[in-house]
Amino acid sequence: MRKEQTGKNQVLRFTVPPDVQDAEKNVRSFLREDHGISRSLLVELKHVKGIRLNGASTYLDHSLQAGDVIELHLPEEESENIVPEPMPLQIVFEDEDILIVNKPSNLCVHPTLLHPDGTLANGVIHHWRLQGISRKFRAVNRLDKDTSGLVLIAKSQFSHQQLATVQRQNGITRYYEALVHGQVKEEGGTIDAPIMRKADSLMERVVHESGQWARTHYTVLERYNGFTHVRIKLDTGRTHQIRVHMSHIGHPLLGDDLYGGERTLISRQALHSRILSFPHPRHKEELSFTTPLPDDMSCLIRQ
């Protein structure tokens, strides 16, 4: 498969291999079964005549022969009323399929009622407008407003669907680093405790037997006077999972006053999304990205 951009549209191009005649494939089965294209995307492209076989518009039940070329013309998208806003972005990587940004703390990923603008989404939409393209903002992983680190953003419905499938199969590896209160005695461990929203709160989460399954692995990197530096790997992605789980074992994050932490040393939860690994949505090559600890966390460690 190849992917290119012609004008404002992205084009996915697939060449049918020699063995397809033995399998008696049509356009639909070839794209769905061999390349994981979602049913919803195929339906959308069918309505706009965005599926082409050897240069001509075609139907999903058209039979295929070896050497046939299928093109999916992905139309330009509106940005869902997200107003473009100029802002400095720490871009770690970008190609025609994905964008990876190192998000600072005190920045929401998406607009909310309390933060309708000035979010990462506003800045990314502006960044794309400067390139002359229009895309929806599709964050694959999401970070809390005061959590810093790597955010993976898909640049098309195809890329988002491919990465979402990988995510459901635990194919996206995320490592965080945190500074937590107290001296963690064990060198590492696993917290397997279900999480649910607290009954009287719109934001706060709690460990509860009727909650959603959640698993967090942690490893001690270093112990300091009054706090511990830990590396954390997630098997699930529940809201506030790291913050809730570390508080649950008696070691809330520094600065996380919602879950028992204190802000005497740092003014936000000391949590950073440091490493992100995943297969590329198009060519499936394994990619891995790392970003250093932000100044407020690294300064505490140096002191």
From TrEMBL:
Gene3D superfamilies: Pseudouridine synthase. Residues 97-248 form the Pseudouridine synthase RsuA/RluA-like domain. It catalyses: a uridine in RNA = a pseudouridine in RNA. Keywords: Isomerase. It comes from Aneurinibacillus migulanus. InterPro entries: PsdUridine_synth_cat_dom_sf (IPR020103), PsdUridine_synth_RluA-like_CS (IPR006224), PsdUridine_synth_RluC/D (IPR006225), PsdUridine_synth_RsuA/RluA (IPR006145), RluA_PseudoU_synthase (IPR050188). This is Pseudouridine synthase. The keyword Iron-sulfur does not apply. CDD domains: PseudoU_synth_RluA_like (cd02869). Pfam families: PseudoU_synth_2. Coiled coil: none annotated. The lineage of its organism: Bacteria, Bacillati, Bacillota, Bacilli, Bacillales. It comes from the Bacteria. Belongs to the pseudouridine synthase RluA family. One of its GO terms (biological process) is enzyme-directed rRNA pseudouridine synthesis.
